[in-house]
Amino acid sequence: MQVHLVGSVGLDTAEEVFAAVGDAVKPYIKRCPDGEIGGRRSWISWQWPLLRAMAFLELDEARQTPGVGLSQLRLKKGAQAKDIHFCELGYAREAAMSYQDFLRARKSGALPPSARFQVCLPTPLAVIGAFIAPEHIPAVLPAYERAMIREVERVCAAVQHRDLALQWDVCIEMIQWDGRLPRLPAPPNAAQVFGGQFARLCNAIPREVEIGFHLCYAKPSSSPTSSRPTCGVR
After folding, report:
1. Has residue 29 been placed in a domain?
2. Average pLDDT over residues 86-90
């Protein structure tokens, strides 16, 4: 038997997460996340302030992301393609810090010596699809995807490849595929569009790094931006 944790754990620090996982399922764990502590506990919601700080975006106060209470963002009038650029997204910094806690937990015996450090990332569409006005998504999404690929490269530079498992959280794409996102329907050629996205994201990951896909479904009564998905498949 093996146990797979999809990401979020309701504890306050990475040290607490690694200790609790070791106490509960040490013989069965092959990969261990840091619990998505701090702002990441709300999954993609912690990216909203970063998007809000971008000079090429502004509030669209007439629209809110359902279930979250955050206004969506739109391109400022007159924004040019050359203006649409994202800085670092924060995921690599978080991973680099938690990796040190992971190494200490593994060295102390709290986690098995063969365990890998699991870094969980949302697909770019999850963030941009949730927080950008639908008509502006095509202009903004490619820049955010490039920024996420840079995050992947930074994670892979900070974590030993033999220690790393990188998991993509695939949520928005899944509920689009099922037709449960009327405001953002799936493209007619969804298989090609989604497949192309996954190929670009994974091409940045070295062969020694494990890759996982968490196929996520939010609860029907909740927003995928604020609740952890209820089922995972690797």
Report:
1. yes
2. 96
